[in-house]
Amino acid sequence: MRPATLLWLAVLFGAGTSAAFAAPRARTVSVTAYNSLPRQTRGDPHRGAWGDHLYPGLRALAVSPDLLRHGLRRGTRVFIQGFDRSFVVMDKTAARLRNTVDIYMAEDYRRARRWGRRRLRIRWYDAQ
Fold this sequence. Notes:
By secondary structure, this protein is of the alpha/beta class. It has a single domain, classed as Barwin-like endoglucanases. The chain is built from 3 helices and 6 strands. It has helices spanning 3-13, 65-68, 109-115, and strands spanning 21-34, 60-63, 77-80, 87-92, 100-104, 118-127. It has a 6-stranded mixed barrel with strand order 1-5-2-4-3-6. The longest helix has 11 residues, at 3-13. The protein is globular and about 40 Å long.
């Protein structure tokens, strides 16, 4: 490898300094889908739990309250099994749900219904 590449990797992975991130965390969860529809929310259907604006094309997730305690907080980047790109936690599910992440599918109700409920593995990194 070229020295510049090695330097970049050292910076990326924190060699010689305290690491910026801990080891990846993983968990199998129920993965469902939700939409920006008035009947699926209280208040503004285009607003996440922390006030973030939700819009078509956004790769956002809502997480169940119990997962917040496991490091899946607002802004956490999450990788879902079977997807080639990550999602960002921007919303919370209903308090009654457990071990669940909801993929945001804007106003495409049919797509969300086709998705259904799947048990998939997710990965994320806890910031230190």
